[in-house]
Every structure is written in C-alpha cells, then in structure tokens.
Amino acid sequence: MREAFGATFIGPEGYLNTASYGLPPKTTVDALERVHRGWAAGTIAGPDFDADIATARAAFASLAGVPAGSVAMGSSVAALLGPVASSLPDGARVLVAEGEFTSVSFPFAAHGGRGVTVTEVPLERLPELASEHDVVAVSTVQSADGARVDLAALRAATRGTDTLVVLDGTQQLGWLRLDLAWADVVVSSSYKWMLGPTGVAWASYADTLAERLVPHHANRYAGGLPWETTYGLPLRLADDARRFDISPAWFPVVGAAASLSWMASLDLERVTAHSRALADAARGALHLPPGDSAIVSIPAEHAAKRLQEAGLRASVRQGAARIAFHLYNTQDDLDRVVDALTS
C-alpha cells in the first residue's frame, strides 16, 4: 500500500500508466464493494444512486471550472460529442490536431456523408487556423505524448468569431487546473487522472450551444423529476443540462462520486507540482526535450520492453513508450524508470 495526499492506494508501486487508466484510492474501492454487496443482497434501489450522481456532477464541475447546471452525464466522450456533431449544418468544417484521440475526431468525421469535413493539422497550428473553421476540437493534453495545446492562443483566436470550441480534458483534469469555462464544450472521461471507474463521462455545454442540441438520448433520467417521468408522454425533460443525461451506470457512478469528490477537495497546484517534478526529472535523466506535461513519451528503441522487464506498468503510443506520473507516484518510481532505461 502507498499513502499519497491523505489517501491510501492499494498497489501503485511501479504503476506509470495513469494515461491509460488511473488507480482508485481505497475509499473508492470500499464504496464500490459496499454497493456490490448491496446488489448481491437485493437491498439497493435506483433512487439510492441519486446523491452519488449529484456529488459526481458537482465534483466534475469544480474540477473543470464550469457551472454544475451546464454538466451532462454520459458513458463516454464520443457519446457526449455525438449531439454536438449532429447539430452542425451540412458542409461544416471541423479542425482537429494530427493524431488526435479518435473519441474527439470520429463523432464529427462520421458526418462526412452530409459534407462535414474534418481537417488535421499540427497541434501548434490549431490557434492559427481555428477561425477559418466552424469547429475546432482538441484534447487539452494530447493522449499520445502529453503535448499541450496553447489554450490562451486558441481562446484569443476564436474570441468574437462563430467558431465552436470543443475541449477534451480527459488527459488533464485531475492533475492540472486550466481555465476551460470559456469553451463551448468541455468533455472528459472519469477513469484516467480523476481516478474513477470506466463507464462515466461528463460534458459541459455552453447555454448558447445547448439551445441548439437535440437530446438524442432522452430517457427517464433526463426528466425534470426523474422518478416521475418513468411512463407516458408528453416529453418532459430537465431545464438544465441534465436533459442530455443518459440513464446512469449505477455502480460506476458510485466510484466516480467517491474519486471525483476527493480529487476536487485537493490542492491541485500541489498535485501539478508533484506530477510535473517527476516528469521533468525523467525527461532530464533520459535526455529528452523539455516538456510541460505529466505524460512523458520515450521514443528510445526497446524502451517499452525494458520498462516491462523492470516490472513497471506503461503503454506504447505512436511507437514510443508512454509513462505518466500522478499523485501516487514517487521518487522510487522515477528511479526505477531511469535504471531500466539507462543501465
């Protein structure tokens, strides 16, 4: 076990794969075990999860810096971007970064049959070209190598234009606080740096955009009073972004509530400093270019194999080993990486 930022983690030794999925604090594991025991005993009911859903929604809003009333709950980033892509007019022009995570690009590319075009450009050119497009969609921290988009430049380039800005914070939220509230859409999964289970994702839709979106997944839980909209017409949905909610994945949302509310209570500046310090030290020791991310891409030959042989958990993205330092990682993890790759 390992203690980090006041929480206990069961087994993160040598775990450097948070960019794939984060490890839960023990309190989250305990919460999930309790609800699964209740399931087995037949003692839980749908309304028992309402408080967890509200807690998780509020925690995401806090981490993303957006109003809770603008936040919709979904199962994945792609599902939450589907209504955005569907709202675009025929022939809309969408701009994405080269090598962008496909949950961001595919929902728009799927509308190619009605003339929607998706153009890939180098990440650093996104601000320069954004105003020439109807939509710019980008991960604030790139999944493959941890590169960060210049948000200040992107905001300046799109201010006063009709360009819709879509930001995916999946590889950012939980280790880095940035101002995202100005964007039209902010989406994120819960299962990476926010340390929740898979199956729960969130989207904040600006009011001006939400007015144009069709709630394609309209369901009982998207109702104004969820337990009173179970049967019959007319359509009666929530007035705020809850009208875009999917019916909740009960057990994952319990874990999301536990992990996200804990993450939202932390001093994120300390988490950033801790994660960045380890990543910067790794880049220095491995003679890699400087960076500003908790994700480190290591293009050295056989790097992934050497990390695996040393008992370290990492991943491979675009031909390079990818490691990620989060709040539960330590100097020992860093030393093991350096030893594995420089011995």
From TrEMBL:
Tree of life domain: Bacteria
UniProt KW Transmembrane keyword: no
Molecular function terms from GO: transaminase activity
Entry keyword annotation includes Transferase: yes
UniProt xrefs under Pfam families: Aminotran_5 (PF00266)
Assigned keywords, A-Z: Aminotransferase, Transferase
Annotated ranges, domain Aminotransferase class V: 76-291
Transmembrane segments annotated in the record for this chain: none
Name listed for the protein in its UniProt record: Aminotransferase class V
Organism of this sequence: Aeromicrobium flavum
